[in-house]
Every structure is written in structure tokens, then in C-alpha cells.
Amino acid sequence: MVTFSSNFQQTQQSTSRITSATTPLNQASSIQNDTRTTLIGNQDIQSSISSAKNSANQIASAISGAANQLQTAAQGFSALDTQLSRDLFKERH
After folding, report:
1. I want to staple 22 with a disulfide (CB 3.0 to 4.6 A). Which of 7, 32, 42, 60 is the partner?
2. 12 and 71 Cβ atoms separated by less than 8 Å
3. pTM greater than 0.70 (yes/no)
4. Cβ atoms within 10 A of the Cβ of 40, count?
């Protein structure tokens, strides 16, 4: 007998770990600019910090989006596996 099987639970665990891995990227956005000093180059540093925050947020968002897409695909495969198993079992009996 042929068995079709996806491991949706494994996918959920993996995508959860992937999403959790973005936490440090999201925490990077908590870095604050120094607006009280007027040192030369301070504005450039503030701009760099803002750019780094935006990049970190975009990367975290892309990773989370990819993890969600993986989970959606796994759900689809799981449903297809169930349907194929039912259809093949019906044909044999």
C-alpha cells in the first residue's frame, strides 16, 4: 500500500523557529538616535541608524512572510496527501 504523508507539524515547528529568529531583527528597531549632541557626523549616524532599522524591519518581514508561505504550502500538501490517500484507497476496494 502506498502512503502519502506530509509532516505538517514539523513544518509548523520549523516556521515557528524561523519566525522567532527574526526577534533580534525586530529589536534592532528599538535603537534610539542621539538627538541631544551636535557632534560632527551625528546626522550621518542618525541617518545610518534609521536606514539600518528600516533594513532590519524589511528583512524580518520578508523572513516572516516566507515562513507563512511555507506553512500555507504545507497545509496544501497535507490536504492533497489526505485526498490522494482517500482516492487511492477507494480505487483499490
Report:
1. 60
2. yes
3. yes
4. 6
